[in-house]
Records
---
Amino acid sequence: MAVQGTIEQFSTAFPQVETSEFRGQTRAVVPSEALFAALEWLRDEGGFDMLVDVTCVDYLASRGAPGRFGLVYLLLDTQEGERLTLRTYVNDPEPEVRSAVPLWEGANWLEREVWDLFGIRFAGHPDLRRIVLPDEFATHPLRKDYPMQGRGERHNFPVITRGEG
Amino acid sequence: MPLERVLQSGDLAHDEAQEYLWTMNFGPQHPATHTTLRIVLKLDGERVVDAMPDIGYLHSGFEKLGEELDYNQYVTVTDRMNYISPMANNVAWHLAVENLMGIEVPRRCQYLRVIVAELARIADHLVCNGAVGLDTGAFTYFLYAFNPREKIYDIFEALCGARFTNSYTRVGGLMRDATDEAIAMIRVVIGELPKAIDDMERLLNRNKIFVDRTKGVGVLTKEEAISRSATGPIARASGVTRDLRKDEPYLCYEDFDFNVCCARDGDCFARYLVRMAEMRESLRILEQAVENLPQGPVDVGMGERATLPNKGMVYSTIEGLITHFEMVMTNRGFEVPVEELYTATEAPNGELGFYLVGDGSNRAYRARCRPPSFIHFAMFPHLIRGHTLSDVVAVLGSLNVIAAELDR
Amino acid sequence: MAIELPDNVVITQLDELVSWCRKNSLWPMPFATACCGIELMATGASRHDLARFGAEVFRFSPRQCDLMIVAGRVVMKMLPVLQRIWQQMHEPKWCISMGACASTGGVFDTYSVVQGIDRFIPVDMYVPGCPPRPEQLIQAVIDLQGKIQREGTMFGGEFERPQEQEPKRALQGPEVVRDWPR
């Protein structure tokens, strides 16, 4: 649901961008080095003033994706009501992009969650640590190579019986 | 979690040791933290100098489950996200799946989904405001708020058998059509709820204690709301006049005439008033929906290969039989394009969206839920800085943070 | 008996008297984590009133309660908190595990949800359901009251000798109600 004018200007400003449309929604793919510049352009020139979500998809060995992890930024223009989905791909080992926190405050916790569950670093994030999992948790569970039932972390606790405690 | 490690992070306003500041742990087991959240407060006497939220005490791996359960099984899990308005989550999930698959449900199904979503909105606002009342000391208000909820539970029970955690929607339709008794019960509730809301307003709207505790507390300006990705009643109370039901209408919301409730102040009292007003608007939508409820099928036709056809068709027509087998055989199921799509709905808490990555099979490759509570709770330290300890509960209640949606 | 007792003298076993007092004033400690917490609140609200059974006071302080109702799923980050709260409660104390998630992990067989809190703390009563209806929770409280009456001792000796307690069995329903009150 994005007005064509903004997308055309965006493609002119960033020639490496590939745009497509599906069910009325516009998606754009940028290379990960150009991600921060693209987000900044979209916020300042494109008018996308709200960051709706930051998420990640692990394409481990599937669908011929150009990288293992696909980072997805969902943007919204509150004045016009336009939406845009911006994607970029990062790879193992050490997947890293620049943090979007200087642009939108709302990206703070969203990026922390992506780090926690997927292991993608955000350079320049003020406080990148685990958010939904315990600090001692060793790995990043939403990756496709981590089993659903876990590796025994959930039952690694002392037992309290009647009589003591 | 050891307290020392938590304090060394960069969230705190002061990094040098300031001995006169007192650290207090708030939660995760506390009557006023709506279930499990934890905040570490740094206090200067009664003033909050900084607050550091610590979440994850209810992280159950919902998104990992989304990769394992199929589209009709996962709706049971979406119930358990924002568990005070489960029907709204069901509607949001199946709207996302149907958008991805390119299916449009029949009119009767759309009207019924709007009806249950608005009932869920009323239930959610009743709990949220009830909890704000309970935390600021108004226990009677809390009981007044839970009473209409029992009537709404009766309606849900008549519709699908469960009081809450309903899992009422299915891909391409609903679990069961609504019976005439259920519609009659909805009419009765529409008649009784305005008086209940009036009673609640009479208790707190002009109550000096409540107004003093919530006016001017936790102010969120319009620019901050947009920068911090606030949506729903919290953004509308700060002046962002966006409501997905009007701006990007889904289901059949364009058929209904209702107002979008906004305020300008952005404090706790404004959010409380916006929620009370939204309950009345939901009642208006419900009235219109129940009066104009179209007749017809509630599931999409068999050609779409999305829902199980009824048994009469299965046993008597060949298409029915084939569709039933296609849906039930293990290597068949829905045909979902290998694409990614984000669909947002106006849940009672804000913009609840699902980013679905389909991979051709009947399970999602990735089912990401965009949780409004998570994003709103991130604003909490900013809202509480400079206020007193007693304002912590008022602000926390007005943000309507549901721990299950927060942690997923 | 040759002795005529006046009307204001009652003979009973001290254990039974103390158990009767305890069972009729169980103060719940609601450890509400998720959706079952809302049904717990609904059980305490006006329609299904848990206060009728003596469980009026939902104190949130473990030092003032004797019945911990674990309502909702317990994840690995929360379990040490649960254990600490259990240890902070005074004897005699009982635990009701409300809902499928607290009893066995429920729908969530994932890397972070504990598959049943009875792996780590002692549980006296399990309430199935997702979420259990308020009537089921009230039945569990009634059954627990029956268990306290049958097995309770004044000085908490039944907790030291678990082999003398009844073995675990399913909710019995109406027969237990016939047992109560004495």
---
Amino acid sequence: MADFDFAASLQEQISALFHHRVHLVVRSISPSVAICYMPQHVDTKQLHTSILSPLLQLGQTPTIEDLRSSLPIGEIMDIAAIPECAPLIVKGWVYIATPQAGIAANVADLPKRSLTSPENETTILGPMVAFTESIGMNTTLLRTSIPDTELCSEEYKMGNKRNTTIHLMFMADRANPDRVELVRQRIKQLRLNDVTGSSELMHMIQDNDLSVFPQLMLTERIDLASHSLIEGKIIILLDGSPLVIVGPSEFIDFFLSMEDRYLGWGIGTFIRALRMVALILSVFLTPAYVAALTFHYEIIPSSLLVSLIESRSKVPFPPLFETIILEVTMELLREAGARLPTKVGQTMGIVGGIVIGQAAVQAGFTSNILIMLVALAALGSFATPDYLMSSSLRLVRYPMVIFAGIWGSIGIVFVTSLVTMHLIRQTSLGRPYFSPVHPIKESDLAYDEVLLPEPKGLTATGHRVRKYVRSISLRSLWTGKIDE
Amino acid sequence: MSSGTSHKYQFKAYMLLFLVCNVQVGVGIFGFQRYIYKEAGHDAWMSVLLSGIATHLIVWIMVKTLEMHKSLDLYGIQHVLFGKWIGGVLSICMMLYFLTNMTTIVRTYIEAIQSWIFPDFPTWLLSLILLVLMVYGSLGGIRVILQTSFISFFLIIATSLFFNYPIRYVEWSRLLPIYDTTAQHIWVGAIKMGFTITGFEVIFMLYRHVQDKNKVMRYAQASVLFTNILYLFIMIVSIIYFSENQILRTIWGSINLLKIIKYPFLERIEFIAIPFWMLVVLPGIMQLAWNVLRGTVQLFGWNEKLTLYGLAVIVIVASSTLHNRGQVNQLNDFIGIYSVIVSYCYPLLLFALTYVYKWRKREKGSDAH
Amino acid sequence: MRSLLKPMFRVVGVLSVLALLVGCVQSSVLEKLGISVAIGFDVLSEEKFNVTSVLTNPEPGAKKKTKIVSGIAISTKGARINNNQQLAHTLVNGQVRVVVFDDKLAKQGITYIVENLTRDPFFGDMIFLAVSEGPSHELLAGSYEQIPNIGTYLYEMLQQHIQDDWVPSCTVHDYRSAFYSAGQDPVLPMLRKLPNGVEVFGLALLQNDRVVGTIGPGEGYLLKLLLGKLATLKEVKIDRDELRPYLHEHRKADGHVRVVISNLGSKKHIRLLSASPLKFQANLRINVELQEITDEYDFSKPQASKLLQQKIGEALTKETEALIKKLQRLGSDPIGFGEVYRSSVRHSKLTADKWKKMFPEASIQSQVEVNIVRTGTIE
């Protein structure tokens, strides 16, 4: 029984690749044609209609050419040797073989998530679509949002075991070719590393992994990714992760959100300024408290003095320890709230936040002014759109509090200078990370942190505004008429 | 002597606006008022003005000298004008000058902190903190110096905005009658002002690394103008806020001006302003250290990093040996005289010599043809 | 790159741990401090002071909000040592708001104390100085039913008076700047203890640093206006006969009409007319709002308010001239005529002693012009 032998031998050979511990379906079409696929990975309807039925209508000994021309499938690949087909079968391809040669056809229907709204980066006015784990879907979303032909996408594979697909996307007329080359080199260097998730990849290709500050941005929003592409940035997509890596990023990028653009220039700039204030508050508020209460009592205005003394007098610890205890408790609350299942998390949040706080103050364990300050500081750190950056800032607060407790205001300034100089020293894909000095000429600006009103005359609104302004000319004030 | 400028050290001319004034505004701003007032009385602002005008002229001469030498820094110019050996000795003197300047700034700043905020902060510890920061910053290269001097520029502006608060307590008549003292007193006051305004000699070292050298003059003058206006403003506010004998007895005049500020949520701003002034002092000493490093690399070829560490250790040790205010004042006076010579007299000499040198070269060149 | 950093990390780590361990700074934790909010100085004998400190009570839930500590010493800081001996918390001066001197000490001279307080960098510059009638210890240590913290109470009371009323600013800076100025003398408020409170009842005039006389609120008002600051309410006495054309004859037949004016803004102009003989012209222009007039006055005619303005101006001019004569007699120049002299005359080389001789001989004319902006909401 020749055909039985061929299918059986095919099954034997392919499952030997998987140590005989795999679920495969091998079916013989004719004595010299057999197909092999993984049952849950293929679209069975398409398999039946587009592969099985045409194949079943072929003759007894078709050649590979006959096979190929009979299949109404777009993606067909030649397979030289049987081991090559294993990764493809796993990816949902079906392997069609004759004793001489084989081809593989793509009828994949892998489990994937449908499009949802972003979980962690929500906006009120923006589009509600986020990336998913399927790199095909993500690349499609980006390509459809920028239909321009300058958008390039290069594919790489990474990982010994995972063989994950990586797409490198950039606009050829906007992105800096040296930086693209740098990214390519780094990805190639990491070819054998198995990465789980974009964040791990990001940390590997970052310029300086010893720094707590992220130098590349991660986002799950499509509008942010496409906006960055148009600005000239490079996007790295990783199969299996809904986050894409955006680089090169500057320090200020982590504090901008697409929401600001949607709100308009006035409100947007105000919100961005508010975030800066929140940043400063969250980093300096608790260290200032510690320094003022431990060393510099003169700086406290007299109206606050009495209430501060009263609230502190019950506390047995010096301000430094009190603050560290409260900060750690706040971090515990946050971490526990993030790890708990949703059903339990809500209750724990309320219990932790309100009850423990209240009880602690009444027991004389801590002062209520400090609880308010720590809560404000935590709020301030969460105003940062990027999660990694807000975590870094929360981390920076600890040495600042400790040094404030040891050296007072000198300690605060010491840590501030150290962190500032550290940020200045960082680069993101070779581009300076933190440069407060921006080029003065507007044309040098890659993007705007301060949103300006649309230049008049360029938009429909601008046209109307211009006409209106011109109509209220000095002459009309004199004559008492307003021209329409 | 490296002939070309390495690419990584280049920056644009407008950065000079922040770099030059940052070395000028160090710790002198805290207490310069009473020295000038001692000489010129309530016409001290005229001394400041005179000093400022002299500074503009000297900067003009400096930039012209540098333009004639195309793309050399101070060590290069000295090498060209004086030959290898004498030029080398002069360069070593300049490096020692920069080093002493650093020590003075560090020690005076520590003195300010110890007088106002932390009387018992150990000197060695504070200088260790300052120099650890300086070393960390300098290891990052010129970019750190550029950006931190930008930050400190805005810190200076922010602090000077606070000086509008004392204005509601001033007596404008204290400025009158104008020109009540002799021209000689004003002249001596201007020289004393030179101690404080000096610092712009770093243009000699920075010129080489500017990308668009045709804009150097305007930004250097702008930077010096900023410092002049700042000092003039503070001097005038001090004259009208304090009465005659009061200012003579006030050691740290500017800090007394800041002391009275009261906002609903914050008082005694000097407790914040003086520590944060560290961010202003840092880029200044980083630049001075960088100047010394340029010298040691060019003349001796020493390893940059090790020289930097050695510098830091020397400054820490030197500043810790000064124990009291009297010694600090002596050091300030000593370095003050030398700064005036280096900043005002020496550039004139260099300009004259360069002119002669170029004229001779042209003669030789025309003879050769 | 990473391998290079490893030994570096170790060195840096060891050094930083050493630095942190060895480099500790003396801390002053807030609740362990006895924060003094007011200090009083009384002279006991030749060289001894009695120094009273009012502290905010650091014990929580205590009924009394302040704690009074006093001790005897020769120097101000010596007194602090003495006072500290009675406390569980360290006595600190950084939050002192008011310093009170008793009148005997003020007559002897207070510069010595003020200078030594200023020497301390933790002492603020905007601290109020005041003179008390009688020992300051009684004023500060007295128990008042309605005043929880005498230190902050005095501070707020003085602040309110300085902002709106007839007390000129009396901070340490004002005192020192006047003291060190050749042509000006300081002026301080005078406090008096009442059975149930404290009142500011006058201003103490100083010559250099000794008290030589006092003036009341009415004169203080004019003094403050001549200093160029704002003072609001003043009561003026005008003879009835002068206003007769417009008065409705109702109540008193003779005597005086009392008018209360509220100052909306004033401009002072002090000029040196000639250097020798020494002549000054002091002019005041006040814009006022009429707050109260004891008789019914007919405002319907425009000349009525013009007459009233003129009469008020004349009354105020008389008072001003009386004030200035009193100042000259006492030898105290808080208004700063000496400063005007110094700034108008070239190479005057004015010193405090010179001015002390010149001031009583000066002839100073004053003129007050009043402009009634409005009479309230009724006529």
---
Amino acid sequence: MSGSRPSRLTVAGALAALSAVTALVFVTIGATPAAATAEPVGQCTTVSGVLVAVDFGHWGGPLVRGCGSTPTTGFALLNQGGWFTQGTLHDGNAFICRIGYAGFSAGQGYPTSATEACVQTPPANAYWSFWRAGPGQNAWSYSQVGPASDSPQAGTVELWTFGATDLTGVRGLPVVSPDAVRAYPPVAGTPAPTPSSTHPTGTGAPVSSTPAAATRPGAAGASPSTAAPGQVPGKAPGSGTVPAGTAGQQSAGAAASAARAAAPAGVVDALPATAAAAASGSPLPALAGLGLVVALGGAAGAAGAARRRRRTGPS
Amino acid sequence: MSGSRRVPRALHPIAWWLWAAGLATVSIRTTNPLLLLLILAALAFVVANRRTEAPWARAFGYYLVVALSVVALRVLVRTVFAGALTPSEHILVTLPQLPVPSWYAGIRIGGPISLEATLSAAYDGLRLACLLCCVGAANALANPKRALRVLPGALYELGVAVIVAVSVAPQLIESFQRVRLARRLRADPARRLRALRPLVIPVVEDAFERSLRLAAAMDCRGYGRAGAASPGARRVTGAAMVAGMLSLCAGVYGMWDPTMAPALGLAALTVGSLLCVLALVLGSRRVMTTAYRPDPWALPEWAVSACGLGAAALMSSAYGVWGLNPALSPLRWPALPAMPVLAICLAALAGVVSPPPPPSRRRAARPAASPGRSRPDRVSETVA
């Protein structure tokens, strides 16, 4: 070391340069909470809205799809109209670890906390992978950005599927094609008129009447919106990306079919529902816990003080 | 405390290590800040009541400082290199933001700092801090030199390496105290950063020297001797040990990595433990040791290890209990699950059921009375 003066100068210079750079590139993040809202699925067409589908097939559930207005983000789509997500403690809220919908399985988020604590980043063979297909596209692409940084154009389809996917997104493709998600369930020749009414049950689209009734996994096959689950794969041949047969996902990757407990038990439309009230809970347990901490810590402090007195006192 | 009626004595070091391992298991399982703070309080309670006056017994305070800086560092890194922000988060403060190239998308440098991100980093850091403090408590409570004596015979060959590795942290703390006192006595005016160099070099040198001296003292007493074993037998033992350890590592990795078949990890774990046991049995057969001043393993040892291991068992039974890993979105007060609280209180009971530490001798109470002088007599005395 050659004295402290030059080093202090260089440090000061570096700091000045750094602050100049940061001042130059000062960017206030456009805290524009996109006015995204959940819409009935019928509102999502090739030119408006973004479809989001979540495949609960890993737990024997249906593929639930919802619709949101643009501008929006992949994150906002899963946090409106009864959808909710949970992040991990390690990576924050934007890393989607758990997904739930108020109308499916009594609002239970999947994977459940018994199998995934959502503390660390989930493993590569059991996480929600994020797939996108732009307007007019019928091939899934593994999203290169996180859902909070994703701003889909109108007409985009987004799909979340759970299971094994490597980081390049080659394995574990979704079992339903983008067109199948778009087109299902309108039956041939009867394109549903889409009035702007907020009561989707009044439309011609065969959406389920009440979310809770129609989206129970057991009842999914019988609900009107899932009258013909076999049609889902039937739409696929045109796609070429996911030639999923009714028997399973032979060509979608052996690993994916092995990891999957069951094929989606149909497609269910997610009605815009109100999210459960976000209660912040009672502060009483926290106060009781802190009291316990203070009591134990106080006992420790008293013991330490007594020891110090003993050491310094009589000697 | 009713401890005054009991005979003061030092507990078997392994009992304290078992207890600390149990509490560490508890802290791994949760990110609830209340439970983690409670664990820290329990550790402090037991250490304050049961530590001796030996130099290494002050380790806990140093570990606490390191642990708190871990929390601070975790929060700092998380706020500077923040992840994507979600609309529901509560912004505390907005820093200037550096633009990043597209291949770096998803990570911000600077920008708004949310309460949620700060809290989650603090919870995560607190868990690591708890783990560190568990090790610190064991270091403060257990005599590191006596702990070495329970090494199985086969490990004597690794004696020197193991001794240097295990005793370097307590020695560092002891050296730090001695060097700092020496500097204070000489009225060295250097402060803060500039005082670092005259402090660090003697401390590292001193700690290393003392570890080597301890290793040499153990070597004199027959640790690390090959005994009457033939070179072939020694090679077999060594090979079995290394293969067993490698297999154990692979097995543990296999058990933890969910992308691997669990059977593979289990098999590697089994083979590894078998090989290790084989090597230990083979190695121990030819080493004859006699104990001078053996450490007893009596009721208090059972009680203390039961406190730690019982806490770990209680916590395992509470796996998946709501409240162990509080969610931060939406923000809510952390819960206080009953079973884990019970487990931590059980662990804190070790501060009551263990016998009080033996009264300090004057020399041990004033470790730095003669900071410059080396004391080889103490080394040999504590090893034997």
